[in-house]
Amino acid sequence: CGGYPIDAASNPVAVQLHSGAHCGSQATRREAMWITGEADFHRAYADLFSQWLGAESPEPPSVDFENEAVLVLAMGQRPTAGYHVALAGKPLKIEKGIAVVPIVWEEPAPDSFQAQVLTSPCTMIKLPRMGYGDVRVVDQGGRVRFELPAPEQPGTRDRPAFAGS
Q1: pLDDT (tens digit, 9 = 90+) per residue, 95-130?
Q2: Which residue, 148, 78, 145, is CA-closest to 105?
Q3: Using the 8-state DSSP alphabet, how is residue 74 labeled?
């Protein structure tokens, strides 16, 4: 089921690797996905900066893919500024085998004035591969944004994510 039990007193820690309003060419729809290998991570990280004129991609952060995976949360393409998604806390709560990842999910008020610019907000979060069987991504209001299986161990196929409301 993708996870191993851990001591309940030592909840796993999440680390935000990136959060931004422009997350490359791949973040056009709302989705959650796992990156479970170094080559895929390097491509995805470089893609974050691919649309920045004259900018070179910085060196990607270190990830031990034998014991960690990267969760990418994308809000999808948006028509204005004012959208944002980011990790809200480092320790994860493990509830009945489910890792609860707290996030901040911000959208502009419907009657607010925003710059008319295409954005594709996303965040990349490094998580340990053990200690849970599934992942639930919950925003600051308690709304479930995504539910997905934990990443499979190296050498196995990952299952698709379910996008919440």
Answers
A1: 899 999 999 998 888 888 888 877 888 899 999 988
A2: 145
A3: E
The two structure tokens encoding residue 45? 């990280």
Q: How many Å apart are CA 157 and CA 159, to the nearest integer?
A: 7
34: CB partners within 8 A, 6+ apart: 69, 70, 71, 72, 148, 151, 158, 161
Per DSSP, the three-state class of 44 is helix
Indicate the pTM of the whole model: 0.82
- Tokens coding 22: 């422009």
pLDDT in tens, 58-90: 889 999 999 999 999 988 888 778 888 999 988
Give the residue from 141, 80, 139, 75 showing the smallest Cα distance to 109. 80
Q: Which helix (H) or strand (E) holds 123?
A: strand 122-128
Band (12; pLDDT cuts 50, 70, 90): confident
DSSP strand pairing (30-35 vs 162-163): unpaired
Residues 6+ apart with CB under 8 A from 20: 48, 121, 122, 123
User: Nearest-CA neighbor of 162 among 30, 44, 49, 69?
Assistant: 30
- pLDDT tens for 18-40 read 998 877 666 678 899 999 999 99
